[in-house]
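Recall the central idea of this unit: under ordinary conditions, the amino acid sequence of a chain determines the structure it adopts. In this exercise we apply that idea directly, starting from the sequence alone.
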Amino acid sequence: MREQFKILLGYPGALIPQKWFIRASGQDLIFPFYHAVSDQFMPHVAYNYRVRTRKRFNKDLDFLLKHYEPVGLDELKAPGRGGKRKKPAMFLSFDDGLSEIHDVVAPVLISRGIPAAIFVNTDFIDNRDLFYRYKSSLLLDRFESIKYSPAVTEIMQSRYHLASSHKRCVKEFILSISYKNKKELDAVARLVDLDFETFLKVKKPYMTLQQLNELDDRGFYIGSHSKDHPLFSEISAEERKIQYRESMEFLHTELGIDYRIFSFPFSDNGVPAEFFREISSEDSPGVEASFGTRGLKKDTVSFHHQRIPMENGTVPGNILIRGEYIYYLLKGLFGQNEVKRL
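Accordingly, the structure predicted from this sequence is:
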């Protein structure tokens, strides 16, 4: 509902010059982010994100480059050190480490001179495993594209105590499966003859170490998105440390990454201030920048930046951005445009 409300705000906002929003809000550094760009149907992503087409992505970039100057990690660590900017700034990033970043996105960004950060789940590099929400999406696509015998959904109703064997109940159940009980997805896949291992081998949805090395050599920033994409507010403090530490160690050991940037899987909502204190001091110099997904917002943690989700089907990027600014200004009237942590 909140995202739809922002979009509704964005359409009339298109009548107002972008520079007014920047001046009124004081927000002259924004953080748009994506997961993939593709003209092809991506069944593993389809029920999670509304992926941008190449055309829509380039239109987004046209708008962003008109009003913002792309900046790199140095600008986040020491704002203004590189001299006075000609425009407000943007720091672009991509989550999940999907192969489309190497094949589709990187050539576009290189040709347009735009730096970007790529956040990867280290357990999925080289297609060694698959994000549980991508498994959910594949299962939902399977149920949409194949008409199964009623016996299949009846088995699921009995096994998982569903309210009925109706396809809608089955879909709701699949979407309800969380990180902690993600093995249930493998059991459902066996029931409908869906082989995730074959999908990984044939489709190769993730980038390889070699591809990440190539992007690193081309100047892209490579950061951690955790090991295997849990919601951090739902795992223990010790699990959070492991997800952060081991993924960072992997990037350093396997890719030679000597800086630390981290984007929270799903969201940073509910993550306590103690975790931020730990990662900022762990194995000095600690994390250099971390990122959330809560749109245009200030944050009490100085090195943590809230990003703007840019995947909403065919909604133009200028509408998404302007909606974020208007929502930010409205929330500011009530002192609610800053994330405060306990």
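The mean pLDDT is 94.
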